[in-house]
Amino acid sequence: MIFVFVFSFSMGTTLAQIDFKAQREHMVKVQLRNRDITDPATLEAMLKVPRHQFVPQNLREVAYTDGPLPIGEGQTISQPYIVAYMTQVLELQPDHKVLEIGTGSGYQAAVLAEIVDSVYTMEIVQKLGHYARKRLKKQQYNNVQVRIGDGYHGWPEKAPFDGIMVTAGAEQIPPKLTEQLKEGGKMIIPVGPHRGIRHLVLLTKKKGKIKRKNIMAVRFVPFTRKKEE
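RESULT FIELD:
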């Protein structure tokens, strides 16, 4: 069962008067702990990262509500629960190196950066990539590197990765990404038909082979590719 909580504000309320920390604590308690998010590192990261700093100014009042929000360029910031769930299933450790495909606003990268040693994140939409880089720098996430470009082939010069997270829906699993997983590494990706229901898929590399597990039905914006010349 999905619970939706909406915060309401009076017409005279300003952003400076909003207790974002209290909203973040409420989000973690109700949207995450009350469901199935139990990983301590994930919960702590979700408590720390100021989600309202990763959404457009006019949406900051509703940054902690239980749903996705538009961030411009036809893209969205995922529902907090989905961010936490995808983080949790990777079973990340402090010394891990993670690749994210689909930086968006930079929020998911920030959550990952609270847990692991280094995050490499790729965004194909230049405007979003530049904004994300600025936001992450402003929030002092110095262990995140942002590359603007097509993430289909990953970031081979930084491979292998302990974890790979794809935050856009793909019609098939990009083979170059699974090649860049470490032995024992995990990858989470939404897979399915364009404009349809996709499945969140968890891939684990064991003895050089990929083990696949379908987890849940989800909706994600499509995986954008660079057009061939």
